[in-house]
Amino acid sequence: MDVGVMLTTAHPDHWTETEVFDYSMDFAVAADDLGYQSAWLLEHHFTRYGLCPNTLTMAGYVLGRTRRIKVGTAVVILPLDHPIRIVEQTNMLDHMSHGRFILGVGRGYFPKDFEAFGVDAGKSHALQTEYVDIIQKIWRTGSAEWNGEHLTLPDVTPFPSQFTRPEPPIYTVGQSPSTIEWAASRGLPLLIALIGSMEAMRSNMELYNEVAEANGHDPEGIQHMLCSVAHVAETTEQAREEIFANMAWWEQEHDDAAFTVEQLEKLPNYRFQYGEWQRAALRGDRTNADFTRYALEHSIVGSPADCAGKLERAMDATGVRNLLLGYEATLNRERVLETMNTFAGDVLPRLGWKPDVEA
Amino acid sequence: MCGVTTAKSVPVAAPGTVTKPRRTPFMVWGERIDPGADPREIEFPAGARNAVPRFDEEVADRVLAGSGVNLADVSLQEIVTFLNRAGQLWKNEEYARRRLYIRELQRLHGYSQKMAETEADLISTTLRAHTQMHDMVAVELGHRAIMDHWIRREDAEVRAYPRGTSVHVLPGNVPYSTTVSLLRALVTKNAAVLKYSAGEPATAVALAQSLCDVDPDHPVTKSVCAVFWDRDCQQGKRVLAAADVICAWGGADAITSALRACSPEGVVVPFGPMRSLTVVGKDADLARACRGIAHDASMYEQRACFSTHQVFTDGDPAALVEQLQRDLEFYEDLLPRTAVTADEAAHVSLEAAAHRFLGSTVRTGSWGAVITTAPADVVDLPSARTVFVHPVADLREVYEWVDPAVQTVGMAPWSLVHTHRDELAGRGVTRFVEAGLSPLFRLGGTHDGLQPLVMMTRMVAVEAPRDDYGKTMVSPVDQSEFLEHSRLRDLLA
What we know:
The complex is a heterodimer of chains A (about 350) and B (about 500).
Chain A: E1 3-7, H1 17-34, E2 38-41, H2 55-65, E3 70-73, E4 76-77, H3 83-96, E5 101-106, H4 111-116, H5 124-141, E6 146-147, E7 152-153, E8 170-173, H6 177-186, E9 190-193, H7 198-214, E10 225-232, H8 236-257, H9 261-265, H10 271-282, H11 288-297, E11 300-302, H12 304-318, E12 322-326, H13 333-347
Parallel strand pairs in A: 1-2, 1-12, 2-3, 3-5, 4-5, 5-8, 8-9, 9-10, 10-11, 10-12
Antiparallel strand pairs in A: 6-7
Helix pairs in contact in A: 1-13, 3-5, 6-7, 7-12, 8-11, 12-13
Chain B: E1 22-23, E2 26-28, E3 31-33, E4 40-43, E5 49-52, H1 57-65, H2 76-91, H3 96-109, H4 113-128, H5 130-141, E6 151-153, E7 156-162, E8 165-169, H6 176-187, E9 191-195, H7 202-214, E10 224-227, H8 234-242, E11 245-249, H9 252-261, E12 267-271, E13 275-280, H10 286-298, E14 308-313, H11 317-334, H12 342-357, E15 361-365, E16 368-372, E17 386-391, E18 406-412, H13 416-426, E19 431-434, H14 452-455, E20 457-463, H15 479-484, H16 487-491
Parallel strand pairs in B: 1-5, 8-9, 8-11, 9-10, 11-12, 13-14, 13-18, 14-17, 16-17, 18-19
Antiparallel strand pairs in B: 2-3, 2-10, 4-5, 6-7, 7-20, 15-16
């Protein structure tokens, strides 16, 4: 069982931009000290939802500041970048950290990103799949030569090659069945948001496992991660109250930056996300407070026993044993560090988690 | 297999193919029961295997105990709204459970992608048909609010109450039957135990799970089970004996078992083995008629009770056969063939061979078979898109071949219905449709001559007191007074 820590770089009013990054480093170092297995970085542009526009740059810094913990990207927005540059930077971090870097990719969800970087959002899924194919081809053959639907590349050899052999893993965000099936066909592990009913989450994993097996991959050997906001207090009610306002703010920042319903209606490759809006409307959610409440009900927020219980149920339902937890909901440096400690010392051990100890 | 004359071949299920069994749970009142260490294995003609829990005493006890939720306390609009939420999930192609269901229909039954998607679409459309659900209640029970309110009806107020717990003994030939049966239970506020057939385990479980996907704690979710037991299972019989209403679909054995197991207080709503046919008049638009026949014979690979097997015509049979073959070939592309079992393939081959021997005109191919023969020569009705064409001099000759086992008669042209419906209805037919509409059950229609919602409810009446005269009286109603003063009978008349 591996547990990672999410470094959101969310920028509330009471933190300066420098403090956002300083505190992120503090959280990463603390995670390293506490024995968490990984720390993960999020890429965002033009929004205070997250200040980090380049997870690979930030990963370099975090890897330099830490000793043992692995550092991953959750995610690099692949369609906004170039696969050769991703391979180059990934391999460089792979060498410099001696295998501590993990590449995680996604296709993006904020319209300004696509507009600013001149990428067609309607092709995000196709671009992601093609870029991953290119990345894996480079790792497997050394050559970037490619003649695909969206990119034509010459026969060049990106350097350095990878440190991790035969090749580093690639994680992908996995919510929509199309992405799940694609990832399963490649045997790519998923970063799975803990949202919705247990049966629904189980069905996602069933779909993944079926397709993975059909494509010759052993689902048992694939190390997915369950992702959730996490916060603990004496009681569940108290835990929710403590972070409600911040979660509502973060939710609003997200909704302001993300595709609107009208935009999603015109994007067939975002049919899942459109369905999420529809489901929210049908269950009666109308306001930001409603959305926040729903998110909190499905997050790992509660008393220590409640948090452990929710995690156990989710892990049983999905068969996924690895977690990626976001502790920053208090938006208070000391409280975040305290929460990380409490989870490491009290909640996670109830599930059999053992911190990594530096050799 | 059937004297194939065209290039495409119909996949015949290869028996004995070894595959890893897919472990599939029961769903009991919104809770999952996984197969244990000793599951019941079900094998399918296409070689797929499922491992499901054993329906033992413990499982039966959980079913019999119920969930503690009484759907009678939930308004119809809340039930309909909840089902709509589930239907919206099914509508979205980016719904994992829809994809799993499509894959399962392909794996278990050899459905084509198109046919499997059509089944998923049917679930979606049905669960989202909120207006139609209210209309169903209005049409069959008299008023759309009657499940929630007392409705004035002449000299009484009437309200419909659920019978309680319904057990649905489901068929293996038409997955959509499961959705229909469940819907009927829920709009009449009955808890529903979906006992799926060994031949069709996918739909019941998928439906129950999708309710959990919407809200695992909702009263509707907690009012549904999806389970399986073998016919001779004693624990299954316990559940049947405790049922307030049993909706029994399937062959004669299934109906008989349900009747035997049902308690004296319970009600059995039987949807037993039926067959269907089409009548084509000499004035019919042949192209339209044959397209309709091909549709009615292709849906569900002709295994449904509404699937047409025989066509009686007083027109040119050669022209009809020619057109029908073209349309069956068209349907081979439009709705690719499901894997046919070895038994089905053998059945078709045998019938074709037998009729060739009798001198009948037989056309077969990967698209199906059309056999032109006298109705007296038909002993058996194979499926797999096999259509018998019976030339007659007068369409009234159809009458002698119709009995109460005939469910649906398709008509082309539609004007024929006015000429023949009374006679055919008198002989047992319960449903007339325009050729091509056989699989589509219209609002207001009946099912095997029944209005199922009526049989799934108790109609409770609050009759008017003496001061409410009604239409027939001009003074307070008092039988005792009338007995005492017999002159009132004449004075008040």
